Amino acid sequence: MELDLTADQEVFAQTTTKFLDDEASPTDLRALRHDLAGFSSAYWRQGAELGWTSLLVSEEDGGGSISGGGLTDLALVSHQFGRFAAPGPLLPTNVVAAALSHRGSPEQKADVLPGLLSGETVGAWCWAEPPPNDRLGKVAMTASVTDDGYVLNGRKGPVEAGAQADHLLVVAQSDGRPMQLLLPAGTPGVTVVAAQGLDLTRRYAEIHFEDVRVPRALLLGDASSVADDIEWQLQLANVMQMHEMVGAMEKAFEITMEWMFNRYSFGRPLASYQELKHRTADMKAWIEVGHGIADAATLHVQGRGDRAGEYTSAGKAYLGVYGVDVLQDCVQIHGGIGVTFDHDMHLYLRRVVVDSLLFGTVSDHRQRLTTLLETKEDASA
User: Fold this and answer.
1) Angle, alpha carbons 70-49-182 (nearest 5°)
2) Pairing of strands 190-195, 177-184
């Protein structure tokens, strides 16, 4: 990140970096390749103790930020998660915790938040849906009204940490209006199907809801605010992804530059060849722009600004293209060794590619940005 950081934020970032350096080395990541959860419970509890799960939760609800700007603080963690390709349900747990702190009833907060904040439990945001309902903002899951609550029917996926989650925050449609319900993962009628994923430690699932009866008390928020709440949660998710992508790009570039200066070809270091100088100059420029647009999106979303949607879609569309390009170039510059499992480069490539596809693809966000700008232009005409 390139935001101006306070001394406390610097210490927080350094503490996170040291912890991940000790607990999330490439060797550790490879060891988790076939682990069902993709992370250890002890690791996640320690991360929670460092503050990873509490930054978007108000102090009244047991959370608190380092600087008073929780999203800025969380972006520091996301950035390091990208640099280490770190494991753990950082994004889904924070989205659920933020939504609960913002709109949850006192009973919901008392029941769910302590476990999320301590790292004892995990939350998953069931927002995306599989094809043919996989476009940005498309929700086909239904919540039929009953005398005492709702009946859920539909599918959600990919859901990060869906099989590891204790609590599911589900987005559905009821009579054409969006709603969110926070229910236990073990609710009867909920079936979790683990999915294959590209990322080495991230775990995803498709979740089926078949006549799932949910009491009215599990409704999160109300009809007047839920659309704005879902939009805000989507912005939070994209901001976290953007910083993670920039962190992975930055780390891969550093590894590649070291390789270029140490690897000799025809008696000269690779870094001395003009064509590679031009390529690395382009990559450096793309990374710097990525820093800038991710930081700008963070500030707009944190301030709940009118242009927050524009900045998040612009940033996600940009990084979805240039993040992948940077990683592919880094792999190519390494030659044959770059495509081996034993080399670390694929860890960052996997993370960036997966992030570029979730919570809206490049095409989705380009269309969304166009729509937002056209709407603004029509309103000012």
Assistant:
1) 65
2) unpaired
Q: pTM of this prediction?
A: 0.95
CA distance 333 to 69: 39
Question: How far is Cα 339 from Cα 318, in angstroms, rounded to an integer?
Answer: 25
Q: How far apart are CA 44 and CA 53, in angstroms?
A: 10
User: Quick count: other Cβ atoms within 10 Å of Cβ 65?
Assistant: 22
Judge contact between 249 and 326, C-beta under 8 A. yes
pLDDT tens string, the chain, 381 residues long: the values are 566 788 999 999 999 999 999 999 999 999 999 999 999 999 999 999 999 999 999 999 999 999 999 999 999 999 999 999 999 999 999 999 999 999 999 999 999 999 999 999 999 999 999 999 999 989 999 999 999 999 999 999 999 999 999 999 999 999 989 999 999 999 999 999 999 899 999 999 999 999 999 999 999 998 889 999 999 999 999 999 999 999 999 999 999 999 988 888 888 887 878 888 999 999 999 999 999 999 999 999 999 999 999 999 999 999 999 999 999 999 999 999 999 999 999 999 999 999 999 999 999 999 999 999 998 888 877
**Using CA of residue 320, residue 362, residue 286, residue 324, what is the dihedral sign?**
positive
Q: Alpha carbon of 191 to those of 54, 156, 160, 188, 371: distances in Å?
A: 29, 10, 15, 8, 36
Q: Which residues, including other chains, have CB under 8 Å from residue 16's CB and lie 6 or more apart?
A: 50, 52, 76, 77, 80
| 3-class state of residue 369 by DSSP | helix
Distance CA 79, CA 240 (A): 8
Beta-bridge mates of residue 142:
153, 173
Q: Which candidate, 288, 364, 284, 269, places its Cα nearest to that of 329?
A: 284
